[in-house]
């Protein structure tokens, strides 16, 4: 159909080049930032691979449609323009506020809008999988990944413990920390998190689309089995790393063989997918289901000469409009980017917090506390997140020890924000037993501040924790709440500061937690009143509603 509807003997390259120039101007800076940022971490290392595979698949699918004369050119400029506008608005908001879901995801909208405007919805439907596959290259918000990753990490840790214990190895587990022999291994996000699950899900869906089985039941069963296949492959990797560490030492487990275990992960997953698919193929064959030879052909089809050139036959006026829209989007994103406002120098926290807070006196040797920020591997990330950190231990006349942690950051952005205790504690081997919101009467004149009470067990002790987070003039107590507050401030061109205030007490069991929470609230209320003026405020002047 492309050959019959595109009959121009000569194709002017300028319009297509204008559209390409606009795409490059918009997205090259974004991808440079991704390669130096999110995609450089283990959590999102699959992003560039997915992007390349998606583009190769798009080229393969276009060649297939052109060879079969199925690439219709039935332009729908209005519908395409609407989709394109959505994509460019998403880019402006994402680029200016550093929201990668919007910024990177906008590419899918923009490309879809161009296809619909030039070829119509029907052609876009025939290319849908390439655009769907691009979803896997979008870095997910860390607050979402952290919450959803923990069950996977705990399950993989438990499975590894049972398998190696059954095999006779001396192994024990505390949360996501495995102890095998004299070594400790922390099951991190990069080893058993959603990044692995997403990558393997993408691998399985790509395999299914390339093979293109005609049996709907077979496709549904294979897709649903990708999640347990991912879990099994992750467990194989952790078992592999545990055995390497036990037999060859910690250096071998964390060195080259740690990276090599990633190859083991994907080879295991690929073999499991092929094995399951072969079993399903055998079952379908026994039931007499046929196979569509045209759909299963994976070879690159032969495209008639000149077809690719005619494919990019774009009218000049729409191309100029698209380029202008993209340039306006770049300018709008730059104009909406928030900037730090100059603030008067503040007294350092370690000098502002007194050595005595009411009846509580400073203990010279502080009790070891849970790290205030962790990276994907469970290691400390405090210096990269916070500008000032204070960790102290106080004791009252009754001998109760109160652990205080303050962490301040001058700027709160989508990729640099306060880390919540319910995320950091489990990353260090703790199990969160209870977590509940609480209105804490700790503000000036007894004003209530939204915070949380948390009970955590691990590393040989039980901690009752009370905390709140202040971002600007609000108290978001969830990762998403923090992101929305930062986003709203960013749209007003403001980059606000943030502080985490945390107090914790070691208790014998959960029954002692309510008394500990009362002690912490009284301690923190006194702290707010006694912090020296001129320091970074622990609470805002006018507390806002719970978010």
Task: Give the gist of this structure.
With 547 residues, the chain is of the alpha+beta class. The chain is 54% helix and 14% strand.
Taken from the alpha-carbon principal axes, the silhouette is flat
> Could you tell me the number of beta strands?
11
Number of helices: 21
Strand percentage lies at 5-15%
Amount of helix: 40-55%
Poorly predicted segments: 1-9, 289-298, 374-383, 542-547
Query: Taking all residues together, what is the mean pLDDT?
Result: 79
Given the helix and strand composition, which structural class is it? alpha+beta
Adjacency order of strands in the biggest sheet: 4-5-6-7-11-10-9-8
Task: Determine the N-to-C terminus distance.
Answer: 55 Å
Sheet with the most strands?
Answer: 8 strands, antiparallel
Gyration radius, rounded: 28 Å
Primary descriptors:
three-stranded antiparallel beta sheet; 54% helix; 21 helices; disordered C terminus; 547 residues; alpha+beta; single chain
Walk me through what this model shows.
This protein has 547 residues and is of the alpha+beta class. The chain is built from 21 helices and eleven strands. The chain has an eight-stranded antiparallel β-sheet with strand order 4-5-6-7-11-10-9-8. It is flat.
Describe the secondary-structure layout:
Blueprint: H1 2-5, H2 13-36, H3 47-67, H4 77-97, H5 100-119, H6 121-126, H7 128-133, H8 142-166, E1 171-174, E2 177-180, E3 183-186, H9 189-192, H10 194-211, H11 216-248, H12 250-254, H13 256-286, H14 293-296, H15 307-311, H16 316-336, H17 349-352, E4 356-357, E5 360-362, H18 382-385, E6 388-395, E7 401-409, H19 421-427, E8 431-441, E9 448-458, E10 461-471, H20 479-491, E11 498-507, H21 513-530
Antiparallel strand pairs: 1-2, 2-3, 4-5, 5-6, 6-7, 7-11, 8-9, 9-10, 10-11
Helix pairs in contact: 2-16, 4-5, 4-16, 8-11, 10-11, 11-13
